[in-house]
Amino acid sequence: MKFPKTQVLAFVNQKGGCGKTSSTISVGAAFANLGFKTCIVDTDPQCNATETFGVELDQLANEGKFTLADVYLTKKPASDVLVDFGDRFGGNLCLIPGNRGLSSVYARLESDLQRMIASEEASPLDADDVRSEYRLRLRKSIDSLRNNFDLVLIDTPPNLDFLMTTALIAADWFIIPVFPSAYDLNGLSTLTRTVEKVRSRYNPILKLAGVLLGNYDRSASLDRQIHDLLKKKFGEQLVFKTAIGRSVRHREATLYHQTIFEHPEGGPQAEQYLELVREMLSRGAKGASVMPLPEEEALGRVAVG
Question: Residue 165's domain spans which residues?
């Protein structure tokens, strides 16, 4: 391991179409390319992260393999759910695959709780404790990965429901991906309130690692203005200087079940994510309370093909 302990980061924003999945995958691939042992967890019922890696959900089911649904429903440790990509990412990247049935997980758990109450296995007074245990299942499952991975990156669904809440409870840090749009900015206050509730009730160590601006056009004055607005809202230290430029290469890579690092023409875009990771490492090296990461000089540079 390159870190003293495993760092768990959730990519969160209740708005869809703001780059959560592409950011999770690309940051994970960047860390893997730099030699960090990394695991991506797909909590979005759309399963876009899982499918981007070419993992067939129907095939997993036919082979009797586990998915994230088993983490929530049967308390399966994440170490039993891992999909290993072998040498594809130098042996440094793994996946906890999603499941299209994740959207019904909370309803199934709630049904189990009501059955327990009806059969007097639990009293109505126990209900809050049981629901809290449900929310902690992802964190306890991910604990099985600690000390075996440098990073665990969690992709989340586009809403503030049970699944995103469990991701925030499980995380040490969260990153907010946004696109330069007023719609993306409007929901950040609601997200901030949710984070504060998670901190006060479940996870007091949860911290903002940074706000990441994607789909960015440096030639557009509106995009630059929104970048400045984000700095005013969160403070300049908590908005990444590295912005991810607008490019069709990300969609092309997804179509062919590739990360941007595997796309034959994705070099410039992959370099942006390496620059983002180097910025994260640099913050940690300077002692900022953002991420306790090692100095970038100790890592060397990786060629982007």
Answer: 7-101+138-298
Does residue 238 fall inside a structural domain? yes
The first and second tokens of residue 261, run together, are 């690092």
- pLDDT means per 10 residues, the chain with 305 residues, are 91 89 95 96 96 93 95 98 93 97 97 95 93 98 95 95 97 92 73 92 94 85 85 86 84 82 81 94 57 38 34
Pairing relationship of beta strands 93-96 and 83-84 according to DSSP bridges: antiparallel
What's the number of domains the chain is made of? 1
| pLDDT value of residue 247 | 78
The reported pLDDT for the residue numbered 299 is 34
Annotate the chain with three-state secondary structure.
CCCCCCEEEEECCCCCCCCHHHHHHHHHHHHHHCCCCEEEEECCCCCHHHHHCCCCHHHHHHCCCCCHHHHHHHCCCHHHCCEECCCCCCCCEEEECCCHHHHHHHHHHHHHHHHHHHCCCCCHHHHHHHHHHHHHHHHHHHHHHECCECEEEEECCCCCCHHHHHHHHHCCEEEEEECCCHHHHHCHHHHHHHHHHHHHHCCCCCEEEEEEECCECCCCHHHHHHHHHHHHHHCHHHECCCCCECCCHHHHHHHCCCCCCCCCCCHHHHHHHHHHHHHHHHHHHCCCCCCCCCCHHHCCCCCCC
Residue 288 lies in a domain: yes
Q: Please report whether residue 256 resides in a domain.
A: yes
pLDDT value of position 289: 43
The CATH number given to whatever domain includes residue 182 is: 3.40.50.300
133, part of any domain: no
